[in-house]
Amino acid sequence: MTRLAQTPDLTEFQTDVLAAVRTFVDKEIIPNAQELEHSDTYPQAIVDQMAEMGLFGLMIPTEYGGLGESLLTYALCVEELARGWMSVSGVINTHFITAYMIRQHGTDEQKQRFLPRMATGEVRGAFSMSEPELGSDVAAIRTRAVRDGDDYVINGQKMWLTNGGTSSLVAALVKTDEGAEKPHRNLTTFLIEKPAGFGEVVPGITIPGKIEKMGYKGIDTTELVFDGYRAPATDILGGEPGKGFGHMMDGVEVGRVNVSARACGVALRSFELAAAYAQQRRTFGKPIVDHQAISFKLAEMATKVEAAHLMMVNAARLKDSGDRNDVAAGMAKYLASEYCAEVTQESFRIHGGYGYSTEYEIERLMREAPFLLIGEGTSEIQKTIISKGVLRSYGL
Ligand SMILES: Cc1cc2nc3c(=O)[nH]c(=O)nc-3n(C[C@H](O)[C@H](O)[C@H](O)COP(=O)(O)OP(=O)(O)OC[C@H]3O[C@@H](n4cnc5c(N)ncnc54)[C@H](O)[C@@H]3O)c2cc1C
């Protein structure tokens, strides 16, 4: 082995696209990330270049103008982008999940209506399950859509929309009255087009403003308030109410591979910075890497980076093969995000006092890592999924 996080058996196209993304990250993202993060500035120039590279349409089928690539290609690109700046990977993540759900579950008309414009990045997706009172407990959603003629009237409040302000299409999970006993069978996904921006963007939809966060800056995370918003019944994903929970869980499952890829990228960058710093910084007459305590830290970090990458690649390949991957995605997300938190922490320690300075990248990576323990389901939720899944095979 020469370098960490290598992936065997890639196609020529995958190798080329990854090389292009890596060069883009090294030249355009890493040199600008600290300044954009600290000024909380949306990375418009970077996003424009990502659109030019076709990254918004990576997994959208070629018949709709996308590149028709696999989840693995997507995840490896995300790993590279997050190595540069996690916020940039956040710009395409909700877009990718929304496009994936439309590709898998949309009507033909919905695919025609949205996917070509999503492939170019003209329409940009956000997805919304969480509310002020719930995140893990999705079936408890309160935002309600009530049928009125050919429309539904939606009222309620959604929370934590990544790209809520900059997106122009929101896949929103809300409650409808299907008369089902099980609460999750009364949930429906609406595809809601709206202009980008803040305030009352269309009658009945308000995006109040950006939520201030400890990290993951530059991109907007918002609330969304529905107040009598009228959605035509044709905007129900797949055309049929009561199927929304399944749609979202499918989206979140690929989203978990994406979060593990981000964790791999953040951990890899933290390792790279620590390895470089440990060879430059001298104490007691020698580089700190020559103290075994530090070289052992690097060994542990490298092993975690490698293990997380392998789990992430395994989960992506499983999904691409058409097999069920809920357990593999849960394991990858759980392991990669926990390791990422540990690796960033160790890199921070290796940087000594400088790790606490905002001039050094590691302080940003330290603030990025905790979100990965939460987004697309917390570690506790992943463990619930993993234990249920493995006990299907090991039950007595
Ligand atoms: C920056 C950011 C961006 C986000 N972007 C989006 C987005 O784009 N779209 C979206 O819909 N949501 C988004 N979220 C919301 C995110 O998905 C939720 O925060 C997450 O699912 C956890 O939900 P919660 O915050 O309500 O915590 P809770 O569900 O209230 O959990 C609180 C604690 O209890 C634990 N817990 C809960 N239930 C159990 C259980 N059954 N067993 C054991 N422990 C349990 C949790 O693990 C956690 O430690 C975002 C969040 C953040 C911070």
Automatic annotation (TrEMBL):
Entries under SUPFAM superfamilies matching the protein: Acyl-CoA dehydrogenase C-terminal domain-like, Acyl-CoA dehydrogenase NM domain-like
Cofactor(s), names only, from the UniProt record: FAD
Acyl-CoA dehydrogenase/oxidase C-terminal domain mapped to chain residues: 242-390
Limits of the Acyl-CoA dehydrogenase/oxidase N-terminal domain: 11-122
Domain of life: Bacteria
Entry keyword set: FAD, Flavoprotein, Oxidoreductase
Keyword Oxidoreductase on entry: yes
Domain Acyl-CoA oxidase/dehydrogenase middle: 126-227
UniProt key word Flavoprotein: yes
PANTHER family: ACYL-COA DEHYDROGENASE, ISOVALERYL-COA DEHYDROGENASE, MITOCHONDRIAL-RELATED
Similarity field: Belongs to the acyl-CoA dehydrogenase family.
Protein name in UniProt: Acyl-CoA dehydrogenase family protein
Originating species: Gordonia hydrophobica
